[in-house]
TrEMBL record:
GO biological processes: lipid catabolic process
Organism annotation: freshwater metagenome
InterPro entries in UniProt: AB_hydrolase_fold, Lipase_secreted
Protein name: Unannotated protein
GO molecular function: triacylglycerol lipase activity
Length: 404
């Protein structure tokens, strides 16, 4: 009886969601011409292809939707989209410094791309307005293949960093933007992974730009630890499909059969296409977990090829010359706190110039918003040329579980 009631409630919810999805689909069709890939993609990564007003109000700013060229890990050219926010106040001598924002996991459907969504500002509350007041340009990549043609390479370091730095390059071509070559990368969750990797890869990918530091909120950094702790829960269904679709592109021999359940194989594409903010996805994942369905057959890191690729995509400690800020909530149920406690200890031991901020009673979704003002102050110090502080004398408030 209870099962029938639950099923009826689920069907009713799905019917209501479907009606909302119809209007969202119409919105995406209207976006088509702007996001269309040109007949010839510019050969130079970071070339601005087109821009238009974003259509949202940010106090003290002009907001743009942009399309630009980027580059895949295999060297082929691709198209990425994103947003650029420019202060309306006059630019200072030497130009405006730039913050390159890298967003977290949103899903792989076109409508999930922040620049195409109904809420393009996402989790920028508490810090975007401050950055505009301080006179900084903010870029926000969607990542290649998210809202644009081609596959989205989820948690693939070189692809993410390429999209981040090429958004900065493209923004500097907007008329009268007066953006300098000094920038900091700031990201959340998946974007935290992008940000930490930017400290390693961006100076080589874009040597004409001057990266002054990287900041991350709840970064998906140590992928094997995160996946090992979350593979058999709702989070396994939340990020597993995107990983299982993306990683075989860069490693075609990566085994799927035997690592992913048959339910996972049958549903990975449809789930990956849903946006993480949608009620339909949350309902889908909750129902699957309630019926005891897992995406993975076991911890994927038990498979040698998956473990090896997870290690390859996990950022190593940054050199002391590249300042890094990491913020983490002890209450995070998506990127658990203890893997980033391990990161703090490892990076401190390696001599990284790392500053950490631990907060409590904050969800994963709200971490970037919550620590945003602290990140703004840290970035401001980078642009001012002040020495970066290490907080390695402060031990993390959590530790790895026994046997992890």
């Amino acid at each position: 009886m209870l099962g029938a009631i639950a099923l009826s409630a689920a069907l009713l919810a799905i019917a209501l969601i479907a009606s909302n999805d119809q209007s969202a689909n119409q919105r995406q069709v209207a976006f088509g011409p702007f996001y269309a890939t040109p007949a010839e993609i510019p050969a130079q990564p970071g070339t601005l292809i087109r821009s238009e007003p974003l259509g949202v109000s940010v106090p003290g700013a002009t907001s743009y939707r942009v399309l630009y060229s980027s580059q895949r890990p295999d060297g082929s050219m691709a198209v990425s989209s994103g947003m650029v926010f420019v202060p309306t106040a006059p630019a200072p001598p030497g130009g405006r410094p730039v913050v390159a924002w890298a967003h977290g996991t949103v899903g792989q459907g076109d409508a999930c791309a922040p620049s195409r969504s109904e809420n393009p500002l996402g989790d920028t509350a508490n810090w975007l307005d401050q950055m505009m007041q301080l006179g900084w340009v903010v870029t926000a990549t969607d990542y290649t293949g998210l809202g644009t043609q081609g596959p989205n390479l989820y948690l693939v370091a070189q692809a993410e960093v390429s999209d981040v730095v090429n958004a900065v390059r493209a923004a500097r071509q907007i008329p009268n933007i007066n953006a300098s070559n000094r920038y900091v990368v700031w990201g959340h969750s998946q974007g935290g992974h992008s940000s930490l990797w930017s400290g390693h890869l961006a100076p080589t990918l874009a040597p004409e730009l001057n990266l002054l530091g990287v900041a991350a909120a709840a970064p998906a950094a140590n992928l094997n630890l995160i996946m090992g702790a979350q593979w058999d829960g709702v989070i396994g269904w939340g990020i597993g499909p995107e990983v299982a679709l993306s990683w075989p592109i860069i490693k075609p021999t990566l085994p799927i059969n035997g690592v992913v359940t048959q339910q996972g194989i049958d549903n990975e594409d449809s789930i990956a296409q849903q946006c993480t903010s949608s009620n339909s996805l949350l309902l889908n994942l909750a129902v699957r977990k309630a019926f005891g369905q897992n995406f993975f057959t076991e911890n994927p890191s038990n498979n040698p090829q998956w473990k090896s690729l997870g290690l390859q995509q996990t950022p190593s400690p940054l050199p002391a010359s590249m300042p890094v800020f990491v913020g983490q909530s002890t209450a995070d149920q998506v990127v658990l706190a203890w893997p980033n406690a391990v990161l703090q200890n490892q990076w401190c031991a390696a001599g990284s110039t790392i500053s950490t901020l631990w907060v409590g009673e904050v969800s994963h979704q709200l971490t970037a918003e919550t620590i945003g003002p602290d990140v703004v102050r840290w970035i401001n110090d980078r642009f001012a040329g002040r020495p970066a502080l290490r907080t390695c004398n402060l031990a993390p408030p959590v530790s790895a579980p026994a046997g992890s």
